[in-house]
Amino acid sequence: MDSFDRKCQNSGIKGKNAEVSQRITFRTRSQLEVMDDGYKWRKYGKKTVKSSPNPRNYYKCSGEGCDVKKRVERDRDDSNYVLTTYDGVHNHQTPSTAYYSQMPLLHSNHDWALHPSANS
């Protein structure tokens, strides 16, 4: 049994073909509950957490075929901070990246600026 099999066995995952999800959490000082991260999200749930006076909100990415989820809650020890946990990897660009990539980069007198394209 190799080390991957042992890790899968210990975590309750069966077989070598188990999908490994990527999860990352950001702790941000903010008065806003949800900050703009460039993606579009659909709220699908809200839960009261036993160990925290603050609720936890659940979101799914609105991108077609994208399975990324986001969990947002206030830090139970310091409510000045928001914990945002992303589960998965987006399979598409951010909508803002797609918008700005369609804008030509024009310059005059060495001043660079983004200008809307004639197509938008």
Automatic annotation (TrEMBL):
The keyword Transmembrane does not apply. Keywords: DNA-binding, Nucleus, Transcription, Transcription regulation. The keyword Lipoprotein does not apply. One of its GO terms (cellular component) is nucleus. It is found in: Nucleus. Residues 30-95 form the WRKY domain. Pfam families: WRKY. It comes from the Eukaryota. One of its GO terms (molecular function) is sequence-specific DNA binding. InterPro entries: WRKY_dom, WRKY_dom_sf, WRKY_plant. PANTHER family: WRKY TRANSCRIPTION FACTOR 51-RELATED, WRKY TRANSCRIPTION FACTOR PROTEIN 1-RELATED. This is Putative WRKY transcription factor 51 isoform B. The lineage of its organism: Eukaryota, Viridiplantae, Streptophyta, Embryophyta, Tracheophyta.
